[in-house]
Amino acid sequence: MTNPIEQAKALTPFWMRDIHQFDGLEIHPCRTEHAENGTPFIEPCEPESAEFWSVYGHCRTGGVLCFEDFPTEAEAHAFAKRLLDAWPHLNTYGLMA
User: Fold this and answer.
1) 56-72 pLDDT per residue, tens
2) Contacts for 46-49 with beta carbons within 8 Å, 24 or more apart?
3) Which of 9, 21, 24, 64 is deepest in the core (most CB within 10 A)?
4) Of residues 79, 97, 93, the one with CA closest to residue 22
5) Strand extents, DSSP E, 3-71
Protein backbone atom coordinates (compact mmCIF):
# COMPACT_ATOMS: atom_id res chain seq x y z
CA MET A 1 0.00 0.00 0.00
CA THR A 2 1.18 3.50 -0.84
CA ASN A 3 2.25 5.92 1.86
CA PRO A 4 -0.64 8.36 2.64
CA ILE A 5 1.71 11.35 2.38
CA GLU A 6 2.69 10.30 -1.13
CA GLN A 7 -0.98 9.80 -2.01
CA ALA A 8 -1.78 13.33 -0.83
CA LYS A 9 1.14 14.77 -2.80
CA ALA A 10 -0.07 12.99 -5.93
CA LEU A 11 -3.50 14.66 -5.59
CA THR A 12 -2.13 18.14 -4.87
CA PRO A 13 -2.00 20.53 -7.84
CA PHE A 14 1.61 21.26 -8.82
CA TRP A 15 1.29 25.00 -8.15
CA MET A 16 -0.03 24.47 -4.62
CA ARG A 17 3.23 22.84 -3.51
CA ASP A 18 5.07 26.02 -4.59
CA ILE A 19 2.44 28.61 -3.55
CA HIS A 20 5.11 30.58 -1.65
CA GLN A 21 6.72 31.49 -5.01
CA PHE A 22 3.72 33.66 -5.97
CA ASP A 23 2.74 37.13 -4.75
CA GLY A 24 -0.49 37.83 -6.59
CA LEU A 25 -3.09 36.52 -9.01
CA GLU A 26 -4.28 37.43 -12.49
CA ILE A 27 -7.41 36.43 -14.37
CA HIS A 28 -7.45 36.47 -18.16
CA PRO A 29 -9.99 35.57 -20.82
CA CYS A 30 -8.49 32.98 -23.19
CA ARG A 31 -9.24 31.17 -26.41
CA THR A 32 -7.64 28.46 -28.50
CA GLU A 33 -5.69 29.51 -31.60
CA HIS A 34 -3.87 27.31 -34.12
CA ALA A 35 -0.36 27.61 -35.49
CA GLU A 36 0.21 27.33 -39.24
CA ASN A 37 0.89 23.61 -38.80
CA GLY A 38 -2.43 23.18 -36.99
CA THR A 39 -0.97 22.84 -33.50
CA PRO A 40 -3.35 24.42 -30.96
CA PHE A 41 -2.15 26.95 -28.40
CA ILE A 42 -3.83 29.16 -25.83
CA GLU A 43 -3.90 32.92 -26.29
CA PRO A 44 -5.29 35.69 -24.05
CA CYS A 45 -8.14 37.49 -25.80
CA GLU A 46 -10.86 40.08 -25.35
CA PRO A 47 -13.60 39.03 -22.90
CA GLU A 48 -16.25 38.73 -25.61
CA SER A 49 -14.08 36.18 -27.49
CA ALA A 50 -13.25 34.04 -24.45
CA GLU A 51 -13.71 30.26 -24.59
CA PHE A 52 -12.66 30.08 -20.93
CA TRP A 53 -11.06 32.12 -18.13
CA SER A 54 -7.66 31.31 -16.61
CA VAL A 55 -6.39 32.12 -13.13
CA TYR A 56 -2.64 32.75 -13.07
CA GLY A 57 -0.23 33.01 -10.19
CA HIS A 58 2.07 36.03 -10.43
CA CYS A 59 5.63 34.80 -9.80
CA ARG A 60 7.78 36.74 -7.34
CA THR A 61 10.59 36.55 -9.89
CA GLY A 62 8.37 37.84 -12.71
CA GLY A 63 6.01 36.20 -15.15
CA VAL A 64 2.90 34.15 -14.51
CA LEU A 65 1.93 30.48 -14.28
CA CYS A 66 -1.56 29.19 -15.04
CA PHE A 67 -3.21 27.60 -12.00
CA GLU A 68 -6.63 26.60 -13.34
CA ASP A 69 -9.10 27.26 -16.18
CA PHE A 70 -12.82 27.96 -15.71
CA PRO A 71 -15.76 28.15 -18.10
CA THR A 72 -16.94 31.51 -16.72
CA GLU A 73 -15.40 34.71 -15.42
CA ALA A 74 -17.48 34.42 -12.24
CA GLU A 75 -16.05 30.97 -11.46
CA ALA A 76 -12.51 32.26 -12.05
CA HIS A 77 -13.09 35.19 -9.68
CA ALA A 78 -14.61 32.91 -7.01
CA PHE A 79 -11.56 30.61 -7.19
CA ALA A 80 -9.18 33.60 -7.00
CA LYS A 81 -11.00 34.94 -3.96
CA ARG A 82 -10.68 31.57 -2.20
CA LEU A 83 -6.94 31.56 -2.91
CA LEU A 84 -6.49 35.13 -1.66
CA ASP A 85 -8.39 34.26 1.52
CA ALA A 86 -6.43 31.04 2.11
CA TRP A 87 -2.95 32.41 1.38
CA PRO A 88 -2.66 36.03 2.60
CA HIS A 89 0.81 36.46 1.07
CA LEU A 90 -0.89 36.45 -2.36
CA ASN A 91 -2.35 39.80 -1.35
CA THR A 92 1.08 41.41 -1.83
CA TYR A 93 -0.27 42.35 -5.25
CA GLY A 94 -3.73 40.78 -4.88
CA LEU A 95 -5.84 40.33 -7.96
CA MET A 96 -4.05 42.24 -10.72
CA ALA A 97 -6.28 41.69 -13.76
Assistant:
1) 999 999 999 999 999 99
2) 47/73
3) 24
4) 93
5) 22-34, 40-44, 52-59, 64-70
